[in-house]
Amino acid sequence: MAYAQPHPRLSVVSNSSQSSSTDHLSPTTNSTRFSLPSAPSLHPPASNKSGPNRPNIYDRNLNKTRGAEVSSAAFAFLFSEIIQYTQKRVSGINDLERQLNTLGYRIGSRALELMVWRAEGSSKAPKREIKLLSVLVMIHAQVWKAVFGKTADAIERSVENPDEYMIVDNDPPIERYISVPRDMSQLSCSSFTAGIVEAVLDGLSFPARVTAHNTPIAQFPNRTTILIKLEKSVLEREELLK
Amino acid sequence: MAIFSLWVINKAGGLVYQRNFADGLAPLTSNEYLVLAGTLHGIHAITSRLSPMGSSSGVQVIEAETFKLNILLTVTGTKFVLLTSLTDTTADSVLQKVYDIYADAVMKNPFHTPEMPIRSEGFDTRIGSFIGTGQT
Predict the structure, then answer these.
(1) What pTM value is reported for the model?
(2) Minimal Cα distance from A74: which residue of B?
(3) What is the C-alpha to C-alpha distance for residues B136 and B134, in angstroms, rounded to an integer?
(4) What CATH topology corresponds to B3-131?
C-alpha cells in the first residue's frame, strides 16, 4: 500500500502536465490537476488511523523508551522458534552459530543507530567514540542495557593475544530458558549477541570477528563469554591515537 | 508430609517425565511406569465423562491408605501428577509451580520436541531446587 500510492500520484501529475502542455492557458485544467486527483492520495495515513488499525509503528516517537520494552516471555518463544527454524536449514553447529550471528548483526546495526540518535541527537556537541576502551565500555554498559535491560558483568583483555577482548555475561537473558543437549554442547546461542556486538563495532569502524563461548562456572551455569578479535588495522590506529 | 514422585503425561497418554524425590515407593521399571501413566490417562478420560452435573474436568485426587495422587490437567491436555503423603496440603500450589517451570524450561527451549520425553537440563535443575527445598 505505502509503496503503491506515490506511483498513481506521480502518474496523475505527469498526465495532467501533458494535457496542460496542450492547453496550459486554461485555468480549469490547472485547478483539477492540483485539487482532485492528488488530494486523496496526499492523506492516506489519516484514513488509516481512523480505521480499526492501530497507529503505525513508524509514527511513534523514537525517543520514547518508557513502556517500549518487549515481554521476555514473548521474546523467549520467538527466539526459540528462530533457533528451531534456523536449525532445520543449516548443516552443523558452526553453520547455526553463523546464521544466528547474521541475525544478531541486523539488530546490532539498528540498535547502534537508535542509541546514537537518542544519546547524541539533541546534544549541542554530538560526539562519537573513537577510543577502543570507551567503545568496549559503551557496549558493556549501554548496548547491553538497551538490548537486554541490564549491563554485562565484566570486560576482560586476553593475556596471550593483545587483539582479543572479552565481554562476560553471567546469566544472558536470551539463554535463560534454553538447555542445549549434550551432543551439541559447544553450541552457544549467544552467537546472536555476538552478532549484535560485531555490528556495533563495525558501525563504529572497529571491524572485528566476534564469537560466543560457554564458560560455565559452578555459580553461573549459563555464563557466556563474547570473544572479540579485532582486526589489525584497529590496533594500529589505537597506537597512533595514543 | 512428603512429595514422593512427579509425573508429566502428554496429551496422548504417554509418560514424558518421571522423577522420584523420596523413598517409600515401590520400585518399578520404566516400562511399568509407562503402563501406569497410560492407565491413569484412561481413568482420567472415563472420570471426565461420568459427571452427573454437566461437564467435568476429570479426577483431581486419588487417595489410598498411604499416599494420594494429585492430578493437574492443563488446558493443552498435559497432565501433571504428584504423588504425596496423605497429610500433604501443598500439592495444588506445587503442581501449579511445576506447570510454571514446565512452561519456562520446556516450552521455551528450542531443543525440546513437543509431546516427546523431556530431556531438558534446565527443567531438571529447576524442579530439583524447587521440590528439593520444599521438602522437610
Answers:
(1) 0.77
(2) B108
(3) 7
(4) Beta-Lactamase (3.30.450)
**pLDDT tens sequence across A41-85:** 444 444 444 556 677 878 888 888 777 788 999 999 999 999 999
- Give the residue from A81, A97, A178, A189 with the most B CB atoms within 10 Å of its CB, the best one to mutate: A178
ipTM, interface predicted TM-score of the complex: 0.84
A147 vs chain B: nearest CA distance in angstroms?
19
Helix H or strand E segment including B129: helix B121-134
* CB atoms inside a 10 Å sphere around CB A93: 17
Q: Residue holding cell 496422548?
A: B12
Q: How many CB pairs under 8 A join A and B?
A: 38
Which has the closest alpha carbon to B2: B55, B60, B68, B64?
B68
Q: Identify whether the C-beta of residue A203 lies closer than 8 Å to the C-beta of residue A109.
A: yes
Using the beta-carbon criterion (under 8 Å), do A179 and B104 form an inter-chain contact?
Answer: no
B115 CA to chain A: closest CA distance, Å? 16
* pLDDT per residue as tens digits for the range A18-45: 444 444 444 444 443 444 444 444 444 4
CATH of domain A71-240: 3.30.1380.20
Task: Give the CA distances from residue B107 to residues B22, B120, B121, in Å, rounded to whole numbers and listed in that order.
Answer: 27, 10, 13
